[in-house]
Amino acid sequence: MDVLLGLQWGDEGKGKVVDVLAPNYDIVARFQGGPNAGHTLVIDGKKFVLHLIPSGIFHPGKACLIGNGVVLDPVTLRKEIEKLDGIVDDVKDRLLIANRAHLILPSHKLLDAASEQAKGDKKIGSTLRGIGPTYMDKTGRNGLRIGDIPTPDFLEKYQALRHKHETMLEHLYGYEYEIEAAEAEFLDAIEFLKQFTFVNSEHYLYDAYRNGKKVLAEGAQGTLLDIEFGSYPFVTSSNTITAGACVGLGISPHHLNRVFGIFKAYCTRVGSGPFPTELDNEMGEKIRQEGGEFGATTGRPRRTGWLDLPLLKYAVRLNGVTDLIMTKADVLSVLDEIRVCTAYRLPDGSITEEVPFDLAAGVDPVWESMPGWQTDVTAIKDKEKLPAELKDYIQYLEKELEVPLTYLSLGPDREQIIEMREMIAG
Ligand code: GDP
Ligand code: IMO
Ligand code: MG
Known about the structure:
426 residues, alpha/beta, 10-stranded mixed β-sheet, 4-stranded mixed β-sheet, binds 6-O-phosphoryl inosine monophosphate, binds magnesium ion
């Protein structure tokens, strides 16, 4: 099994590249996160945003698995499936859902909103899709799972959990809410889901492995949003790193092969939290406009900044990246100078390449500057035709990160990608 995941704060272009790589695999599987993800694919000039469905769905014959580590909102999934009506005909045959995946209830979304409101200016900047509260119920051993849907006491279990949430909303948060309409929509969507195949992903994927099938695990969010190693508490509630793919699908680490680490040629972040290389100025605005940096799930403007090498090295190490993929180098074509943060100056004046415990505690980037390529690269198909400055930028990053770059994406369309070295699926 191969894994593709984000090395930054999400939105690195995972959806686009999974769509490009999918022909090499039999199964594409999501292993964590939920509808907080927004993965954009551009096919024949048409844009599609996927939140829960794996990004292999546009390829006939490929199975798409929503793994046990995912938290699933049936309402979002239903809307997403209905949007594909008339575009992808056999979603019902190819979409599989893990029995052990946890359900996001309407009351989880209310709890997300109540918790953020209570945090005031310390809020995480959550997508408010109910992710945190659902994972809390999972680890708190109260959750409701896909495999509970066909059981006779599903409704009872649902009501017990809703009741617990209502007690919290009223007594802990004093939060005013309306749940009836959302609940009706939720129960309808539960009925709708019954036509899909629920599987034990650990058995399904083991059988696939025994039969020589190739699996690509598709990450959501990014390494710096990992619950354990991200910029805590400004993170999401799941393990976004490679190890999360084993837990989130029921796959042994022995069966992992290649790890594709994807990053933008610069950095973005949506929501609150530290961002050492942030460009909170005109230059940042220029990159935002040029890169179309607005959230695929919430539409919020993304914060922008220069590439941060200490963080990228940290992400490469944590994930055991074997192949790098860089996206959006085309966006930097408008700039005559490109900067990269190579180390941090700490408040005591010392310089380090190590990611500190608290990124927010006044780390000051040490910069390296290099010339921009100032050429439109969006139509280039041959790596030899890349401008020299971009080739130098790539070589510099490969040397610093000690991992080769396998793909270079130069635009949002599935055709705008260059294979830099031979790709063999594992
Ligand atoms: P994901 O969450 O990692 O799948 O990424 P998103 O879809 O949230 O955000 C990436 C955005 O960049 C989307 O609008 C993509 O269409 C777009 N995109 C992906 N790769 C490239 C690229 O190489 N160049 C440009 N200009 N846009 C890209
Ligand atoms: P994809 O898969 C970028 C951010 C939110 C917030 C924090 C916690 O498209 O890369 P949550 O809703 O999980 O409680 O939010 O994480 N966040 C993302 N940022 N891309 C994503 O997904 C994200 N999913 C969550 O903005 O700061
Ligand atoms: Mg996204």
